[in-house]
Amino acid sequence: MAGNFLWWVCIILEATLLVRGFSSGLAKKYRLFYAYIIIILTSEVIRLLFYLFAQDRYRSVYWYTELATVVASYAVIIEIWHQGLRHYPVLSKRITLLLWIIFAITVSYASCSLVASQFVLLLRVAADLGRDLRFVEGALLLIMLWFFGRHRIPLGRNLGGISIGAAIWIGANVINMAFLSLPGQNFSKFLRGLLPIIYFIALVIWCQSLWMPVPASASRFASEPEENLALVTSKTRGIVNGISYRFLKALKQ
Amino acid sequence: MEILPYVLLGVFILALGVRLVVQIVMHRGAEYATLEDRLRFGKVLNCVCVEADIMRRILSRDDARFIEGMGAPQVRKLFYSERKKLALRWVLRTQKQVSYLLKTHLMLAGHTSKPTHNFDFDLSAKYLVFKFISSVVLAIIWLVGPFKASIMITYIINSAEYFSSIFRLRHFDVQDSQLASRRSVQ
C-alpha cells in the first residue's frame, strides 16, 4: 500500500517537474535531463498499466523500460559534464566525445553477448546492459564529482541540484545492483525496499532546485563591476550635488 | 568480496554527492575564487620568487667561507645558528606558500578561459613529492645546518621557482572581470 502510494507520488513529482521545466524554460536548457524525466514518466505509466492489467508480462516490460531509463540517465551524465564545462568548450567537446565512445564500447560489448546467444537471451542481455551501463555511469559520475569539487567549478543551483539528485540516485542504484547478486541476504532486501524512497528524495531535490531558473555564479560575478560602477556614479552625483548646494548657499550669504 | 568494488563505488559517489551538497549549501560561494584571492595569489607569488632569490644569496657558501677564515669562534657559532634558523623558517614558509598557491591555483581553474588538459594531475603529484622532500630537508637542515645541505636547499629554491612559473600562468589567464569581490559573494 505504502509502495503504491510512493509510486503515485513519484509520478506526480515527475509530472510537476516537467510542467515547471517547460513553463520556466529550463527544459530548453537541460534538454537531455528533461528527456530523461519524460522517459522515466512514460516507463512508470507503462509499468503501472502492465502491473494492473497484464501482470504475466510485467517482468519483461520492467527490464526493457529499465534499460531505456538507464540509457537516458547516461545522457544525463553527458548533460551534467557538458553544462558544467560550458565555459571550457575545448575540454567539454573532448569529454563529450569520450563519453559517447565509452557508451559505444559498452553497447558493443552487450551486443556481442546478444549475437553469441543468437538473440535468444534478449531479456537477459537487456538486464546485463542496464547493469553494466549503471556501473559505467557510476564511475563517470564519481570522476565528475571529484573533478568539479577539486577545481571548484561553479555549477549553480540548477545544475548543482541535478548533480546531487543524480549522485544520490545512481550511487544508491550501484550499491543495490551489487547486492542484487546476493538475493537471500537481509541487507539486499532492505536496500531494494529503500530504493523507491531514495528515488523520491532525488525527485524532491530535482523539483526544489529546478523550480525556477537561477543563473550560475559565474554570470553573477560578471555583472559585479557594472553594479560597482552604478554605486560609484550615484555616490559621486550625491557628493557633487552637496558641494553645489553648499556653494550656492555660500554665494547667497 | 566480488561486490566490494561496486559497493565502494556507490559509497564514494554518495560521499561526493554529500560533499557537493555541503559545498553548495554551507559555503554559498565562499569556496569559489574571488578578486581578493587573485590579488593575494599574485602577492604570494611575488613573495615566493623574491624570497627564493634572496635565500639563494643568503645561503650561498661565500658568507660561510668568509666567516670561516675571518670570524671569531663566537661569531661563527652565532652566524651558523642564525642561518640555520633562517633556513628552517624559510623552508616552512615556502611549504605553506606553495600549499596555499596550489589550492588557489585549483580554485582559479574555474575562472580561466584556458582549460587544463591534464587536469593538473602532474602538478598535484609534483606538489606531493615537493612536500615530502621539503619535510626531509627540514630534518636535514636541523641536523647538519643549511651549508652542508646546499644541494637540498638548491632543490627547494628550484622547486619554488618552478611552481611559481606554473602558478603565474594561471594568474595571467584569469581575468579580473570574471571574479567578484568577497563582499559581493558574502
Q: Would you mind describing this structure in some detail?
A:
The complex is a heterodimer of chains A (253) and B (186). By secondary structure, chain A is an all-alpha fold. Chain A has helices at 2-24, 26-29, 31-53, 58-84, 89-116, 122-150, 156-180, 186-209, 217-252. Chain A has 2 domains: 2-214, Up-down Bundle (Rhopdopsin 7-helix transmembrane proteins); 216-253. Chain B is mainly α and 186 residues long. Chain B has one domain. Chain B is built from 7 helices and no strands. In chain B, helix 5 packs antiparallel against helix 6 (150-173). Classes of the chains: A mainly alpha (253), B mainly alpha (186). The interface between A and B is large, with 48 and 37 residues.
Short description:
Chain A is mostly helical and 253 residues long. Helices cover 87% and strands 0% of the residues of chain A. Chain A has helices spanning 2-24, 26-29, 31-53, 58-84, 89-116, 122-150, 156-180, 186-209, 217-252.
List the helices and strands and how they pair.
The complex is a heterodimer of chains A (253) and B (186).
Chain A: H1 2-24, H2 26-29, H3 31-53, H4 58-84, H5 89-116, H6 122-150, H7 156-180, H8 186-209, H9 217-252
Helix pairs in contact in A: 1-3, 1-8, 3-4, 4-5, 4-6, 4-7, 5-6, 6-7, 7-8
Chain B: H1 4-25, H2 35-58, H3 61-70, H4 73-108, H5 121-144, H6 150-173, H7 182-185
Helix pairs in contact in B: 2-4, 2-6, 4-5, 4-6, 5-6
Low-confidence stretches of chain B: none
Radius of gyration of chain B equals: 22 Å
- Total number of helical segments of chain A? 9
Shape of chain A: elongated
User: What's the architecture of the largest domain in chain A, going by CATH?
Assistant: Up-down Bundle
Measure the end-to-end span of chain B: 47 Å
What is the H-and-E element order of chain A? HHHHHHHHH
Mean pLDDT of chain A comes to 81
| Rg of chain A, Å, rounded | 26 Å
Helical percent range of chain A?
over 70%
Low-confidence stretches of chain A: 218-224
Percentage of β-strand residues of chain B? under 5%
Please state roughly what percent of the residues of chain A sit in beta strands, choosing from under 5%, 5-15%, 15-25%, 25-35%, 35-45% or over 45%.
under 5%
Strand count, sense and barrel status of the largest sheet of chain A are:
none
User: Biggest chain pair contact, residues each?
Assistant: A-B, 48 and 37 residues
Structural class of chain A: mainly alpha
Termini separation of chain A (Å)?
Answer: 88 Å
